[in-house]
Q: What sequence folds into this?
C-alpha cells in the first residue's frame, strides 16, 4: 500500500487505489507521475521501458493538490478514469504473471468477431497446453492469481468466452452450454491446438469443460473442474435466487451489491478500494445485458436437463481433478462427491476456508493442486 512515506512499487495502480483520494475526483493526493502513465504503461507491458516502476519518476504532491482535469481520469468523479484504472490493473497483472495478451480474429458466419486471450510459455512437444475457462460474468483475468505461480515451462492460455471480457462478435439470442462448447472448439481449431490439452474450468466454465471433454475427447488429455454447476441436491439459496430471476448477488450494479457479492463468493472478503469498485461496475455494466441473458438462458435451457447432460461424463476416459471450497455458497461442497461418482478416473480435493472464488481465497493451494495433478498425469501419459 502507498503511504505518506513510501513510494508505491507500482504507482499507476497503487497511488490511485491506496493513496489518500481526492473527495471530488478520487485522484490520489499523495503521488503523481511525471510522464505519460498510459503510454509508459504500454511500453512497460511491451518490455520497452521500466520507467513506470522507477521511483525517480514519482513525486509527492504538495499540499494534497489534485488535477481534476487530468486527460485520462475524467472530471468530477466520472467513471471514465476508474474504468481505465481497472483496465490498467488487468494489463499490469497480466504482464507481472508472465502472460501476453492477444486477439484472434474470426469470421463468425459473416460477422467480424474476435477472441481475446492471454498466453504464457510456449508449446512443448510431450507437454500439454493448459487452457483456463472462466465462469459466468467473469473474464480471463480471473485466472491471474493462479497462473502467476505456474512455471514458464508450462504453456498456458486463458480466453474470454463469448459475451465476456474483450471477446466480441458472438452475441446470441439464446445461450447454451453446447453453444459455448462449439465456440471453444472454434477457438482451439483456429489456434491449431492439435495436441490433447489439459483444460481447466471454474463454475460455469467447469461445466463447459467437462461436457466439452465428453463431446470432443480427442482434444483433451485431462481436465480440472473448479466447483462446476452441480445437481439440485447441492443447490444453495443463491442458486434458488438466480432461478427466480434475482441476479444482483452475481451481477452487482452498485458498490453495496459488489461488496455483497465478494462477501458471498469468498471467505477472505478483500476490501477493494472504491475507485476499483466503481471502475469494475462500469466495465461490467457494458456487458450486463449479455450476462443476464446468459444466466437466464442457462437456467431455462440447460439446468432442467443438467443431470441428463452430465450422464455423458460416465464415458469419460481422461483423468479429472475436482476442486471445491468447503464454504462455497454457490453450490455446496457435496457437489464434489457428485462429480467424483460420475467421472470414472477422477479425484477430488476440498479446500478448507475457501468459498467459490479459489483465485481469491486459495490461489496458491489451487495452483499447487493443479500442477501436482497435471505433472503426475503427464508422466503417466509417457
A:
Amino acid at each position: 500500500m502507498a503511504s505518506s512515506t513510501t513510494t508505491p512499487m507500482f504507482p499507476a495502480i497503487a497511488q490511485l487505489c491506496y493513496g489518500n483520494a481526492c473527495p471530488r475526483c478520487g485522484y490520489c493526493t499523495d503521488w503523481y507521475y511525471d510522464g505519460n502513465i498510459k503510454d509508459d504503461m504500454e511500453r512497460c507491458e511491451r518490455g520497452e521501458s521500466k520507467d513506470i516502476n522507477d521511483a525517480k519518476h514519482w513525486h509527492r504532491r504538495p499540499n494534497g493538490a489534485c488535477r481534476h482535469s487530468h486527460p485520462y481520469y475524467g472530471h468530477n468523479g466520472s467513471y471514465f478514469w476508474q474504468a481505465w484504472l481497472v483496465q490498467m490493473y488487468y494489463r499490469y497483472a497480466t504482464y507481472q504473471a508472465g502472460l501476453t495478451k492477444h486477439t484472434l480474429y474470426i469470421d463468425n458466419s459473416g460477422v467480424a468477431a474476435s477472441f481475446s486471450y492471454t498466453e504464457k510459455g510456449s508449446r512443448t512437444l510431450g507437454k500439454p497446453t493448459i487452457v483456463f475457462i472462466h465462469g459466468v460474468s467473469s473474464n480471463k483475468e480471473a485466472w491471474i492469481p493462479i497462473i502467476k505461480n505456474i512455471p514458464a515451462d508450462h504453456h498456458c492460455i486463458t480466453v474470454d468466452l463469448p459475451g465476456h471480457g474483450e471477446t466480441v462478435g458472438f452475441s446470441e439470442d439464446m445461450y447454451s452450454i453446447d453453444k459455448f462448447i462449439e465456440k471453444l472448439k472454434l477457438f482451439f481449431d483456429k489456434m491449431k491446438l492439435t495436441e490433447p490439452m489439459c483444460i481447466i474450468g471454474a463454475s460455469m466454465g467447469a461445466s463447459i469443460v467437462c461436457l466439452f471433454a465428453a463431446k470432443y475427447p480427442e482434444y483433451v488429455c485431462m481436465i480440472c473442474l473448479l466447483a462446476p454447476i452441480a445437481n439440485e441436491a447441492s443447490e444453495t439459496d443463491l442458486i434458488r435466487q438466480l432461478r427466480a430471476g434475482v441476479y444482483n448477488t452475481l451481477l452487482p450494479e452498485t458498490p453495496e451489491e459488489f461488496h455483497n457479492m465478494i462477501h458471498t463468493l469468498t471467505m477472505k472478503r478483500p476490501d477493494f478500494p472504491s475507485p476499483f469498485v466503481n471502475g469494475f461496475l462500469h466495465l461490467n455494466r457494458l456487458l450486463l445485458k449479455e450476462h443476464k441473458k446468459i444466466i437466464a438462458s442457462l437456467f431455462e435451457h440447460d439446468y432442467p436437463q443438467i443431470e441428463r447432460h452430465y450422464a455423458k461424463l460416465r464415458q469419460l476416459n481422461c483423468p479429472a481433478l475436482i476442486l471445491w471450497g468447503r464454504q462455497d455458497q454457490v453450490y455446496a461442497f457435496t457437489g464434489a462427491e457428485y462429480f467424483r461418482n460420475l467421472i470414472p478416473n477422477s479425484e477430488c480435493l476440498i479446500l478448507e476456508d475457501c468459498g467459490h472464488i479459489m483465485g481469491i481465497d486459495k490461489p496458491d493451494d489451487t495452483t499447487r493442486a493443479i500442477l501436482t495433478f497435471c505433472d503426475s498425469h503427464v508422466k503417466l501419459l509417457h
